[in-house]
Design brief:
By secondary structure, the protein is α+β, with helices and mostly antiparallel strands. 35% of the residues lie in helices and 32% in strands. It has one domain: Gcn5-related N-acetyltransferase (GNAT) (Aminopeptidase, 3-Layer(aba) Sandwich), CATH 3.40.630.30. Strands 1-2-3-4-5-7-6 form a 7-stranded mixed β-sheet.
């Protein structure tokens, strides 16, 4: 069986990252990132079905110079937001792209009436867990063998009271820090 060689991406240039609603035209680039970072990526068909859902879904892309460098999605059911996916191209990781995406998802979830938010994350992905903790997510349980393709458990995390003033202040502080970092990078 022939394996496709993955091109090594050049280092990410400095520059502004913007967040935009995911559209059909972004799906190919999103799936390309998925294939680079996950052992069992979502398909284009799955993303297209999520984008076609009539309501209760929010999907975004992070753009740098017009190129998709990250993406995230959430589903709102009742008063709970479930972060369904989040990914950043390897060369753009540790550049606050995931922070920007998660801030947008949670801001929208609050506007839509979410009172709590949840997600699953690989037990081995301590970097992502730290990001989620900054947003007030705390461990709540383990889903055994959730990532069956690699035999790994998922840590279930919840953020409660995301509709509170205190949580709004947390988001504002994160967003101020992002803006300050963006300003500093442009100097």
């Amino acid at each position: 069986m022939l394996r496709r060689r993955r091109a090594v991406a050049p280092p990410a240039p400095p520059g502004e990252v913007s967040i935009a609603a995911m559209r059909r035209r972004h799906v190919r680039a999103v799936v390309a990132i998925e294939e680079r970072i996950f052992p069992r990526p979502w398909s284009a068909a799955l993303y297209l079905s999520e984008l076609a859902a009539p309501k209760g879904r929010a999907y975004y892309v992070a753009l740098a110079g017009g190129a998709v460098v990250g993406y995230a999605g959430a589903m709102l059911v009742g008063d709970e937001a479930h972060v369904t996916t989040i990914g950043v191209a390897p060369e753009w990781q540790r550049r606050r792209v995931g922070t920007r995406l998660l801030a947008r998802l949670l801001r929208d979830a609050r506007r839509a009436g979410a009172r709590s938010a949840t997600l699953e994350v690989r037990m081995s992905n301590t970097g992502a867990q730290e990001l989620y903790r900054r947003f007030g997510f705390a461990p709540a349980g383990i889903r055994k063998n959730y990532y069956a393709e690699v035999g790994e458990d998922a840590l279930v995390m919840w953020a409660h009271d995301v509709d509170s003033d205190a949580y709004g202040e947390r988001l504002e502080a994160i967003e101020r820090a992002l803006a300050a970092a963006q300003e500093e990078a442009q100097r």
